[in-house]
Each structure stands twice: as structure tokens, then as C-alpha cells.
Design brief:
382 residues, 2 domains, 76% helix, MetI-like fold, mainly alpha
């Protein structure tokens, strides 16, 4: 194992000009970090985050119905923990890692500016996280065949808890704001755009001229239009085309715009995977007596999707960040809520604190998706 002195001499101070560049870089880094810490500790007004934390997270969702939002979080965390346990069954966790996790949970419970009820919910969710992870690792073979179906079935339950109906008090979509709306729009758009993108990719490689040209026209037209244009078309032009009796909710219109846009890019990612499958695989499957649909489902798609997991996850991350454009068409998601908070008289001009906070939220979720992608790649031995 190389000692620190040898590593520094080899990588940072190997020649006189490398030494000079290293010293200049270290001085610049120290100056920048010192400035940021000085501002964050002595100048920043973090009260804007503390006072408006609920607005950032759930917006104007009725306070009396917060228990439904907590249940949604508990369902998502439990399923995510089970999935994490299934895909990390070969990984060993040390006591140090477990202690770090417990310390993070404890710090969150103590540091977050929330009431006692919210602390109880967070503690319960942390317990569900640990239990779900243990269940996923212990019963991997039993859970794996049902995991995708369980995720799909959880979406109607989550939408029912958020929107109400069927025995629950209805909550207008105008009250779906903040991070709640961002996550909901991103999750639904990802779930819907993926199968549509796969079908478009298959259509573009089809031997049927009508199907192939329709797929090509759709993909190329949508990829040639900016997302904000499609969102404006969905919000402004679509109601003009529909009859007066048929009015789609603006959240549904925004989801339609995101899905139609993302599906075109997803199709090109999947098409790249389809082209990576050797022709001999298809011929061998046909020689075994498989018909065309079974060849696609059992032979081509598994290999194609496995080859383009990084590109697909990159598209999901881009779609999650693109939800910030919804604030330009009247939806108060996370970025739109930040703009509303900045309009409060006592917090006018607190741009740095607010946008650093929502930037941190976006980074946490995007990095989590990237981390999950790498784990999935290792699990599939790509």
C-alpha cells in the first residue's frame, strides 16, 4: 500500500511545474472554501428554509391530511429498501457502516426543524427502511419475481392517498405543490415513458413501412422541439383542440407533455441497445422455434436494455430535472414553490439560500438514481 508521502510526491509534486500548479490550486481551493463557509455561517439567513420547510416539501397540501403524505413516503421507502436489499445481497456491511447510518438518522431527528409528530413519523420510516432492507436480503429469491409488480401496484395506492376519493377526502391538484408534485410528476412520467419508448424503438426497427415511418416521424419531430414548447402546447393548445365538455386537469396535461417528450429520447436509447444485439442471437432463437414476439421479449430486449442501463438512467435523471420547467406553465412544483417563497416580504433577495437548498434536493435524488444504476450494473455483471 502506497503511503501518503509517496502518493503526494508522485501525483502532485513530481516536477517543479506540477508543484507550482498544486500549490496554486490548493490556495484557490482554500480561498473558495473559506469564503463559502464564512458566508454560510455568518451571513446566510437560513431561517427562510426553516420557516418554509413544509412549503418546500408538500406546498399547500392540507395540514390535517399530512398523515397521507407520510404514508406515501413510508410505502416508497419500504419498497425502495426491499429493492436495495435484493440488489445488494452479495455485499457485506460492516459495523462501521451501520453505525454511520444510525448516526445520520439520529442527526436528522435532532437537527430538522420539525414537530414531535413528524419526528415520530421519521423514526418509524427509518425502522421500516432497516426492516425492508433486511427482508430484501433475507428473502431475495421469493421477492425478486414479484418486485416489479409490487412497484406497479403501489402507484395506484400512492395516487389514491394523495388525491383522495373512494372513501378518502379529495384533494385538488391545485394543492399538490413543492417536492411532492415534483416527485409525483417525475415518477409517473418515468413509468409511462419507458414502455412507450421501447415500443417506438421497436417500431423504428420494424419491417412494416407504416409502423417504421410513423415511429421515425414521431421521434424526429419531438426531438426537434424544446421541452418548454411541448409543455406550452399541452397546457395552452390542447384545451383549444378538445371540446368544451372535456377538460383535462393541468397536472395530467403536464404529465402528457413530459411523457411524449421523454419517450422520443428513450426510444433512441433503446434503439442503440437493440443494435448492439448480435444478429446470430435472433437467428438462433428462431432456429429453436420461437416466434417473433417471443424472440423480442425473451432474447432481444433483455440484452438490449442491459446494454443501455446507463443511458436509460441518464434519461430518467434528465426527466427528473426537467420537471423544474413546469413552474413556467403555472404548476407550483419545487422550483415554482421556491419562487413563491422568494416573493414573501421578509425573504426578498434570499436567492442563494433558497436555490442552494433546492439544488441540494435535486442532487440527492439524482445521485441516488445514479448510485442505483451502478449497483444494478454490478448486479447484472455488465
Amino acid at each position: 500500500m502506497t503511503n501518503p508521502q509517496t502518493w503526494l510526491r508522485k501525483n502532485l509534486f513530481s516536477t517543479w511545474y506540477n508543484s507550482l500548479l498544486s500549490v496554486i490550486s490548493l490556495v484557490l481551493m482554500f480561498w473558495v472554501v473559506q469564503g463559502i463557509l464564512t458566508w454560510a455561517i455568518f451571513s446566510a439567513q437560513w431561517a427562510v428554509i426553516q420557516v418554509n420547510l413544509r412549503l418546500f416539501l408538500v406546498g399547500r397540501f392540507p395540514e390535517s391530511l399530512y398523515w397521507r403524505a407520510w404514508l406515501v413516503l413510508a410505502i416508497a421507502v419500504t419498497l425502495g429498501a426491499i429493492t436495495w436489499g435484493v440488489f445488494s445481497v452479495k455485499q457485506q456491511f460492516t459495523r462501521r457502516q451501520i453505525a454511520i447510518f444510525a448516526a445520520i438518522v439520529g442527526l436528522l431527528l435532532l437537527a430538522l426543524p420539525i414537530d414531535l409528530t413528524s419526528r415520530f413519523w421519521l423514526l418509524s420510516i427509518a425502522i421500516l427502511l432497516s426492516a425492508g432492507f433486511g427482508i430484501g436480503r433475507r428473502f431475495t429469491k421469493v421477492i425478486t419475481p414479484w418486485l416489479s409488480l409490487t412497484w406497479l401496484l403501489s402507484f395506484p395506492v400512492i395516487l389514491w392517498l394523495i388525491g383522495g376519493g373512494f372513501g378518502l377526502q379529495s384533494v385538488s391538484t391545485n394543492l399538490w405543490n413543492g417536492l411532492l408534485l415534483t416527485l409525483l410528476m417525475a415518477a409517473v412520467s418515468i413509468v409511462l415513458s419507458f414502455p412507450i419508448g421501447v415500443l417506438l424503438a421497436l417500431g423504428r426497427t420494424s419491417n412494416l413501412p407504416i409502423v417504421r415511418w410513423f415511429s421515425i416521424l414521431y421521434i424526429e419531430i419531438v426531438r426537434g422541439v424544446p421541452l418548454i414548447g411541448i409543455l406550452f402546447l399541452a397546457q395552452v393548445m390542447l384545451p383549444l383542440v378538445l371540446s368544451a365538455d372535456m377538460r383535462l386537469d393541468r397536472v395530467l396535461r403536464a404529465i402528457a407533455g413530459l411523457v411524449l417528450f421523454s419517450a422520443a429520447y428513450m426510444a433512441e436509447n433503446v434503439r442503440g441497445g437493440l443494435q448492439s444485439v448480435p444478429r446470430g442471437q435472433v437467428e438462433a432463437a428462431k432456429a429453436l422455434g420461437l416466434n417473433a414476439p417471443l424472440v423480442v421479449i425473451l432474447v432481444i430486449l433483455p440484452q438490449a436494455l442491459r446494454a443501455v442501463i446507463p443511458a436509460i438512467v441518464g434519461q430518467f435523471i434528465g426527466l427528473f430535472k426537467d420537471t423544474s420547467l413546469l413552474s413556467l406553465v403555472g404548476l407550483v412544483e419545487l422550483t415554482g414553490m421556491a419562487r413563491s417563497i422568494l416573493a414573501q416580504p421578509q425573504f426578498i433577495g434570499r436567492y442563494a439560500e433558497v436555490y442552494l437548498f433546492i439544488g441540494l434536493i435535486y442532487w440527492v435524488f439524482c445521485y441516488s438514481m445514479s448510485l442505483a444504476s451502478r449497483r444494478l450494473e454490478r448486479q447484472l455483471s455488465i
